[in-house]
Specification:
The chain is an alpha+beta fold and 147 residues long. It has three helices and seven strands; from the N terminus they run ααββββαβββ. The strands form two sheets. The protein has a four-stranded antiparallel β-sheet with strand order 1-2-7-6, with no helix packed on it. A three-stranded antiparallel β-sheet has the order 3-4-5, with no helix packed on it. A hairpin with a 2-residue loop joins β6 and β7 (127-133). The longest helix has 14 residues, at 12-25. The termini are far apart.
Amino acid sequence: MSNLFPATIRNGFDREFDTLINSFFGHPAFNSRNTRFTNVATTPRANVIKQAEGFTIELAAPGFSRDEFEIGVDNGVLSIHVGTSDSAEYIEQLTSQEFAYSSFTRSWTLPKDAAPEAISARYEAGILYVTVPTNSNTNNKIVIDVE
């Protein structure tokens, strides 16, 4: 840690601080080689925003390219998948690892009034925005004429 923030004076506290930080980031939840905790540490977080026109999903996924995202709808479930990982050669060269790129899938059940054919997505500044429009004719009030 001190390599990132060089100090002009090194004392015992600095070494203890480095040990504390390294032990924290060496925890299995931060170690991508431990498959038990990989999903916890590498699954991107998402916000779902309700709007008048439908929903927008904001998925925080920095470091990917647009081509790596696979987005699809199957049986009313929207899925976002990225199938990538650090190469074995790259992992062998690591002396310290605090982040990793690995595959993930996130899924959401679409509302009944969703319009899957009109879903759109854009990737900007590390955030994937997926817009799920809903049909505007969701008026629950129906007037029936008597003949």
